[in-house]
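User: Can you model how phosphoenolpyruvate sits in this protein?
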Amino acid sequence: MVLEGKSVFGGIAVGRLSVYHKKDNQVKRMKVTDTDAETARFMTAKEQAKEQLATFYEKALKEIGEVNAMIFEVHQMMLDDPDYIESITNMIATQEVNAEFAVATTGDNFSQMFAAMDDDYMRERAADVKDISNRVISILQGATHGGMTGDEPVILLADDLAPSETVQLDKSKVLSFVTRHGSTNSHTAILARTMNIPALIGVDFPEVAEPAGSAAVGDSQPVTLDGAFGIVDGYTGRLYVNPDEATLASYQAKKEEDEQKKRLLQELKGKENITLDGRKINIYANIGGVADVANALANDAGGIGLFRSEFLYLESEDYPTEEAQFSAYKAVAENMAGKKVIIRTLDIGADKQVGYFGLEKEENPAMGYRAIRICLDRKDIFKTQLRAIYRASYYGTISIMFPMIISVSEVKQIKQIIAEVKAELTEAGIPYKDCEIGVMIETPAAVMISDLLAKEVDFFSIGTNDLTQYTLAIDRQNPKLDSIYDAHHEAVLRMLQMVVDNGHKEGCWVGICGELGADLTLTEQFLRMGFDELSVSPSMILKVRDKVRNADLSK
Ligand code: PEP
Ligand code: MG
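Assistant: Here's the modeled complex, given as structure tokens:
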């Protein structure tokens, strides 16, 4: 049986299902004569409930952090809400009913009232007021709480889980949460993310499962979900109950793959990018904006090898101001805390069109008015960007590189403009640091004159995406040509070697920032070629590190 729901956290869980049994607070209306004593009984239970919540808060603080633990403080405050208390005590006094009944009725009324409100926050409180009321009723009834039994870790199925229920769970026994109700930001979803385990919501599971007929359980009698074998696919939002062997095997393999990724993260974070025979290489991250920095750092990037600055232009309605650019570059530099940040200057045109630039339609945009060609033509735009970069350089370690270079004269013009920008900043008393200057090698022309370019700059970063398209004369945008767009083509590989050799002869370091840099089948070859740096998408950093650490160039 396969049940569909919505995933709120990815991952695969394989194990027995356990249906969470809530303590059923069956409340009967009873007549009381001593209403004062009944009111006192309620007040005592309420205080006990607050004490319980205070211990839950402490436990949650350690397990899931302050922000998520706050809910228990909110619950304590709700229990002291004068309207809530008054409703209960009035009902006891005027209707002469037992405290359990007054609490249950008030809980229901308040919950319905919150649920009908036109405000997301208040609607969420509907479940909370039910939860606090159930807690007080349980105490009044002297009841114990529902939960899981057994030692084996399980996939936990529940209608929904209140914070006070999740906090009492033994987290080491939960492989995944699956709930009928709940929202993406429900407490259970947040908890699953914190615990790093898959979770599904909106799964309409039945109380009694269909005939199993599966090897996993081994009989064909109807079985209850409780104790059945299950798989949670947190990527597709599916719950498999008593899966067949083939499904189980394929999920075991996926899980293994996931675990390997997690292991890589655990084991390789903080480790050097060094081969078995001692050769080191820098592994940096490619980013499109400030928001990607967190991901780069989480994956242990040694620096930013390609900051595609054109996204700042693509995301705005008009030319981004010097101030807006400065604050973005500064934020990246500061967040990288002294690690190298290589900003690539504006690379628009071709596949990246920006309306307000008013660029004319071209027959061959990939070979047209783009990147550095625009910048050298429209110096005002270029100077604004360079001023922003130099101002930000003061706050970290920034390098600058230029896209689509085909000649030494372009580099000389760039250097002239940089000199003007620096002179203006000095004149205005604005602090800046000297930045390393590099060129992207993404045209065959740049490869062939890399010996000359190397005399002008500090580093080369090879843009293999464009270099492959221009070398093989294959439009990288044309899906029909995907099968012959061969980045392993001998022509491309020979070019890479040529660039490394020419760069090194003049003391330039050389890296790759195109997609090929993350091709794990070539990592060892890149090391042998002598590359100093590979800049890849954040999620590939540790995989490349793993390859590097297992390579032995002495063999
Ligand atoms: C490249 O061409 O390889 C590159 C890194 O630049 P982009 O993909 O942004 O053109
Ligand atoms: Mg490119």
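A couple of observations from the model: Confidence is low (pLDDT under 50) at residues 208-223. The longest helix spans residues 35-64.
User: Helpful, thanks.
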